[in-house]
Design a protein that fits this description.
The chain has about 300 residues and is of the alpha/beta class. It folds into 3 domains: about 5-90, DNA Primase, Chain A (Alpha-Beta Complex); about 115-195, DNA primase, catalytic core, N-terminal domain (DNA primase DNAg catalytic core, N-terminal domain); about 200-290, Dna Topoisomerase Vi A Subunit, Chain: A, domain 2. About 35% of the residues lie in helices and about 15% in strands. The chain has 12 helices and 10 strands. The chain has helices at about 5-10, 15-20, 65-70, 80-90, 115-125, 125-135, 140-145, 190-195, 215-225, 235-245, 260-275, 275-280, and strands at about 45, 50-55, 60-65, 150-155, 160-170, 175-180, 210-215, 230, 255, 285-290. The strands form 3 sheets. It has a 4-stranded parallel β-sheet with strand order 8-7-9-10, sandwiched between helices. Strands 1-2-3 form a 3-stranded antiparallel β-sheet. It has a 3-stranded antiparallel β-sheet with strand order 4-5-6. A hairpin with a 6-residue loop joins β5 (about 160-170) and β6 (about 175-180). Mean pLDDT is about 80; it is low at about 95-105 and about 280-300.
Length: about 300
């Protein structure tokens, strides 16, 4: 695969990359141009051209995913940025190229396991445990999902350390954090941890007759506590789920329960009319689109 073809394959992953940086792509966000100092968010995601675009006349910066990787890794050249992108998104470049040899079946040591364990131990008796109890979670559920507490977890969206709960991803070397006093989820940098996985992915293949698909990890945990099975999309979006189902179908009926807001309703409509719906027609999986207003608290 030459670089032009590789870029066309990589460009649509820009939303996933931005979300991996903790950016909510549903709204305008702070311009990523280091030279652009601003108080009001002036950059948005151009989904047609797959670029982050600053709409101010004085800046007008446009970045594709390779540009963003270079911005996040000072000193990295274009060849290195392509190499990093190939690794992040498991893209097979079709054999050696002039500047990159894909790594096959590389075994990586767990990066976050020790931290996850420390946070889980720190949860007992902490304000994090009090917060989760207030959300309706039992001690047993907290232990089952290894929920944790960090008194000074740095939060990139807020730009400061905050007392936070931590939520590991079952079956994956990955976790996210949420400040106790702010609704500002944070996650590891994509360049360090790779793309965000689907939360609680093993539930898809657990033999459950039906699996709820929600946005929030805490929503999924609440459903599991109530006796159901659930996964959470987090920042990965429906595209991640589509790719997962293409690679490994499930026999479970899937109940799509995204947030009952404009973006959530729009995603449900698109799922019903698009590629996700087609997967269900051709397989043994079913889907229903509903707003999440059932057994869990929605302000998560």
């Amino acid at each position: 695969m030459d670089r032009t073809a590789a870029l066309q394959q990589l460009k649509p992953r820009i939303e996933e990359y931005l979300q991996g940086k903790g950016i909510d792509t549903r709204h305008n966000f702070k311009c990523l141009n280091p030279a652009h100092q601003e108080n009001n968010p002036s950059m948005g995601l151009d989904r047609v051209n797959h670029q982050a675009h600053c709409f101010t006349i004085s800046c007008g910066a446009r970045y594709d995913i390779i540009d963003l990787i270079k911005l996040d890794n000072p000193g990295l050249d274009t060849a290195g940025a392509f190499e990093m992108a190939y690794r992040l998104y498991n893209i097979d470049a079709g054999g050696p190229t002039a500047d990159f040899q894909p790594v096959q079946n590389e075994q990586k040591a767990p990066k976050y396991a020790d931290k996850i364990e420390r946070y889980a131990v720190a949860l007992k008796g902490s304000e994090g445990e009090t917060y989760l109890t207030g959300r309706g979670l039992s001690i047993e559920t907290m232990r089952r999902f290894k929920l944790g507490y960090s008194p000074e977890e740095y939060n990139k969206p807020l730009g400061k350390p905050m007392p936070s709960i931590t939520i590991p991803y079952p079956g994956a070397d990955y976790y996210i954090s949420r400040p106790i006093s702010e609704k500002a989820y944070d996650k590891p940098k994509t360049s360090e941890a790779g793309p965000e996985p689907i939360f609680n992915l093993p539930a898809l293949y657990s033999g459950a007759q039906a699996v709820f698909i929600v946005e929030s990890q805490l929503c999924a945990i609440s459903i599991e506590q109530a006796g159901g099975s659930a996964i959470a999309l987090g920042g990965g979006g429906l595209n991640r789920l589509i790719q997962q189902l293409k690679a490994k179908p499930t026999s479970a009926a899937l109940i799509l329960c995204l947030d009952n807001d404009a973006p959530g309703r729009e995603a449900v409509v698109k799922a019903g009319a698009g590629e996700l719906s087609a997967l269900f027609v051709n397989g043994s999986t079913a889907i229903m689109g509903v707003g999440l207003s059932l057994m869990v608290k929605t302000d998560l």
